[in-house]
């Protein structure tokens, strides 16, 4: 049913908590797992967020891959630059994802958060089902 699962990750607690659900789904359906980290490009010469430096993102992906491989889950990693919601949906289409699993920061609880939420945008733009882990 879910041959390919895309798991967009960042440094958030919500992404770490969603990892347990990813393990469960991938093991249950014997899915291919693709990890994705999206770095938003800087604008107006702003200094880069230390949590989004190339070294930090590479370490995040390496650590996440190791966690999944400890569970005997082969994992592919992709690092991209762009607007997170659009990039997540583009990569889902590229890899033929049947499911996107994401952690939710809960920002959609307000009208302002709803319009700015990456999660909400992915839900509306995704080429496949999206499982949101609260």
From TrEMBL:
Pfam families reported in the protein's UniProt record: Usp
Domain UspA: 1-134
Origin superkingdom: Bacteria
Family per similarity comment: Belongs to the universal stress protein A family.
The protein's name in its UniProt record: Universal stress protein
